[in-house]
Predict the structure of Protein-tyrosine-phosphatase.
Amino acid sequence: MNNNSIFKSQPNFRDLGGVHTKSGQKVKENSIFRSSFLGKMDENELFILKDLNVGEILDLRTSQEIDLIGKGDYPESINYQNIPLNAGNITKSLIPIFTKGEFHLLDSNILEQIYFDLITKFTTELASIYREILNANNGIIYHCSHGKDRTGIISALLLDFFEVDRKHIYSDYLMSNEFLKKSNDYQLQMIKDNFSKQFNREVSEEEFAPVKSLFYVHEGILKNIFEYIDKTHGSVRNYFQSELGLNEEEIELLKSKYLE
């Protein structure tokens, strides 16, 4: 699987392909890409995007997130589509907590709840996303704001559907922590500095731990998601059929299209 160095301004961009499945097949490269928000690309990066033969961009952010920083400026050849996954929109509730330094109000289970909401309450949206991937004529990119949670669960389920070993899926999932570290450190320091100005003291590590946790992905949460799907559906393939409503033909086409 490719690393994230192709776009300097997009720390969490990467190719989902290049990895082998348990049966020895390979997920096609340069076909499915995952990313953080793509809105700050320079001319050279836009040229690279075109060179990748990307035909579609799926934006998983909410309208509030898009209003805040825009939808991005892409070549006319690329079809932009917004399929909002509202379960990930915690920005509105978090901003006042961060600005007021009321870190004790943070729910320690908020990220895990978001993940479970995504796979149980947003099945219509998930089905639409996977069908867009299935029907893409050229390369397709899907992204949320940071490319770690909503994008992360979409990627993890798809790789498991392709029967990629879960050890590799966890590894790919955790790459977001490495790729986002620089930007996370910057944002976390800003929150710390704001706290210090308000309360004339440094925030303790214990106080700040719930904040820091939100900026990173956690293997345990993804494991719990897989355990839940295994227990309730038997496999991600069955989940795609019984919960998302993909039929047998779509299931087989999705595999044949992206496995070689």
User: Anything to note?
Assistant: The chain has a mean pLDDT of 91. The radius of gyration is 19 Å. The first strand starts at residue 14 and ends at 15.
